[in-house]
Amino acid sequence: MADRISALISLFGVLVSSMMLFGAVRDYQVGSSVRWVAAGAVLVLVACLTLVRDIRRLRTAATEARKP
Q: Torsion angle, CA of 18/19/24/25, rounded to 10 degrees?
């Protein structure tokens, strides 16, 4: 159950970081620093890697649970 909650939190992190990246791109178009876009891209990358790790952990746990 804890693995599912962790995966759900990771999914939420991907959504939030994507929204932050979108906001950074919009601010950059208005004249803000490009560093915000780079920071947003790094956040999305880290959030995606965390989500992949959690999904792999879920699949491993499901496979091990089916073994007799």
A: 70
